[in-house]
């Protein structure tokens, strides 16, 4: 770091050299200044010399006049005249000498004074030229002139530094004004383009300024909004809460996420969420509101959906409670059933209903449609069956006829229920079958061959007022025989290409696992249909019941 004063001096020297073509401009001699001083010097010296010579001339002329008087002796007169002539000659040479000395002295003095004044004048001239060009980094050389120019140069430098500071201050103020103008423009753009409702309101209950979003959301014109108390637009049920919030704002408390409803131009109401800050000494409120009507609707819809989901879960739990949780123990038989619903609740139904004399009724059915309606139909059917089988020895045909009559009366015309009932007498290994519109059941022997097909013998329940089901069919189960009851959700399961799983694939699964427990066959069926579907969402419920008479 250079000592204080050295670097500015070097900078100024470089500046002046750059301006003066190698430094010659600063030291260029000012001949007009020299001529002026020379003229003044010659005028002064000439005047003084002329006065002296003129005095001498007057003295000699007076002496000459004295010698010319008649009273002076001729010899004395002649000698005096010779002396006077010599004095005149000396006077002439003295005048010439004095003139030469005066001229030389004037030249020297003028050159010295002009040279002495040349550098500071040139320095100040160039400094003023730089300032005139708007450059305030001027730093003049600190010349030692020992006269008034030295403090003048210092004062000029201080003046330039003051101008530089003032210019910096003006530039700073200009930047500040530009930044403030930019902020104002941004604020106005935010105010004008914001999708939120921005306003300035008074403690007197009137809007003082509103942005265009008010017109877009509420439909009222700006003039209409400013002309009336804003409380007139508030929903009657929200007026009390709004007035209480205004009292809090008047007391200096801010508002955060306050909700109320404003009337729109078409007579409806829009939900607004307000955030506001009061300025008590100005009696103003600065507020921002957001239209939350869609959010409120979404919240209400979500609440309704949650309620609906709770109701569906409750219905699901109720439906699951209607399906058997335990399989009855039958000596000499292996029995199992399982159901998977395509939706939260479904219309598939299977059951094990105990009846008189140790017999049991196997039931499997499928209600039309999907979802809650099918589940209700399935629940009605189950309730009817359990009620009707409470009477001992009731024929299956009569039970189905009564169930049909009840469903026909209690359900719409497009609702029906397929149902297959099989009464098993474990002692005689006899199955009595009645099938109303349900897919056929099959009996497989120990080798996996199909030995019986139990087709439908009547229309689905609920379609007509009377159930015309044919007489009961009796089937004897041999040791090792396996009964398979399915809903159509298995056969109608689709692959990604749209192909149905079909009955043949069901038969193939049963034949390959016919020697395994019925629970394993059920698991194999579900596994096979899931692999076939490859993630395709099931369109229908899938239920299965398997009964095997164990080999002796």
Care to describe what's here?
The structure is a single chain. With 552 residues, the chain is α+β, with helices and mostly antiparallel strands. The chain has three domains: 6-163, no CATH class; 194-296, PAS domain (Beta-Lactamase), CATH 3.30.450.20; 314-549, PPM-type phosphatase domain (Phosphatase 2c, domain 1), CATH 3.60.40.10. The chain is built from twelve helices and 15 strands. It has helices at 6-19, 31-67, 74-132, 149-193, 212-218, 222-227, 239-250, 293-322, 372-388, 396-410, 502-512, 518-533, and strands at residues 197-202, 207-210, 255-263, 269-279, 284-291, 333-340, 348-354, 360-367, 417-425, 430-436, 441-444, 450-454, 473-476, 482-486, 542-549. It has a five-stranded antiparallel beta sheet, with helices on both faces. A five-stranded antiparallel beta sheet has the order 6-15-14-11-12, with helices on one face. β9 (417-425) and β10 form a beta hairpin. α3 packs parallel to α4. It is rod-shaped, with a radius of gyration of 63 Å. The model is unreliable at 1-27 (pLDDT under 50).
């Amino acid at each position: 770091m250079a000592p204080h004063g050295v670097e500015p001096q070097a900078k100024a020297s470089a500046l002046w050299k750059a301006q003066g073509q190698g430094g010659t401009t600063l030291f260029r001699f000012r001949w007009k200044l020299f001529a002026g001083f020379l003229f003044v010097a010659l005028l002064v010296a000439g005047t003084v010399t002329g006065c002296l010579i003129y005095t001498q001339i007057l003295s000699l002329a007076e002496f000459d006049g004295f010698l010319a008087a008649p009273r002076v002796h001729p010899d004395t007169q002649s000698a005096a005249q010779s002396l006077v002539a010599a004095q005149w000659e000396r006077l002439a040479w003295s005048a010439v000498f004095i003139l030469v000395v005066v001229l030389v002295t004037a030249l020297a003095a003028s050159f010295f004074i002009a040279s002495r004044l040349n550098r500071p004048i040139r320095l100040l001239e160039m400094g003023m030229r730089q300032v005139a060009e708007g450059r305030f980094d001027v730093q003049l050389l600190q010349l030692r002139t020992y006269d008034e120019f030295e403090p003048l140069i210092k004062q000029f430098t201080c003046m330039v530094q003051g101008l530089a500071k003032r210019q910096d201050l003006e530039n700073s103020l200009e930047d500040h004004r530009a930044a403030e103008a930019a902020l104002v423009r941004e604020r106005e753009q935010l105010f004008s383009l914001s999708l939120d409702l921005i306003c300035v309101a008074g403690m007197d209950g009137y809007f003082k300024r509103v942005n265009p979003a008010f017109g877009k959301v509420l439909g009222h014109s700006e003039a209409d909004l400013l002309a009336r108390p804003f409380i007139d637009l508030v929903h009657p049920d929200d007026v009390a809460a709004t007035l209480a919030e205004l009292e809090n704002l008047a007391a200096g408390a801010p508002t955060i996420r306050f909700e109320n409803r404003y009337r729109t131009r078409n007579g409806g109401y829009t939900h607004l969420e307000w955030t506001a800050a009061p300025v008590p000494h100005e009696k103003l409120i600065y507020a921002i509101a957001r239209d939350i009507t869609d959010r409120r609707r979404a919240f209400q819809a979500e609440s309704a959906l949650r309620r609906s989901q709770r109701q569906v879960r409750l219905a699901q739990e109720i439906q699951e409670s209607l399906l058997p949780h335990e399989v009855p123990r039958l000596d000499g038989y292996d029995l199992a059933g399982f159901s998977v619903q395509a939706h939260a609740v479904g219309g598939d139904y299977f059951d094990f209903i105990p009846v008189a004399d140790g017999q049991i009724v196997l039931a499997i059915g499928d209600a039309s449609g999907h979802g809650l309606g099918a589940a209700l139909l399935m629940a009605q059917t189950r309730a009817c069956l359990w009620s009707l089988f409470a009477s001992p020895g009731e024929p299956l045909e009569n039970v189905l006829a009564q169930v049909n009559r009840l469903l026909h009366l209690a359900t719409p015309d497009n609702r029906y229920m397929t149902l297959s009932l099989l009464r098993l007498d474990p002692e005689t290994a006899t199955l009595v079958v009645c099938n109303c519109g349900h897919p056929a059941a099959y009996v497989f022997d120990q080798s996996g061959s199909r030995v019986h097909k139990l087709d439908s013998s009547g229309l689905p329940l609920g379609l007509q007022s009377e159930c015309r089901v044919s007489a009961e069919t009796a089937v004897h189960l041999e040791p090792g025989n396996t009964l398979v009851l399915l809903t159509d959700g298995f056969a109608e399961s689709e692959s990604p290409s749209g192909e149905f799983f079909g009955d043949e694939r069901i038969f193939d699964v049963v034949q390959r696992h016919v020697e395994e427990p019925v629970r394993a066959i059920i698991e194999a069926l579900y596994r096979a249909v899931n692999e076939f579907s490859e993630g395709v969402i099931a369109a229908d419920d899938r239920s299965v019941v398997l009964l095997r008479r164990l080999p002796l």
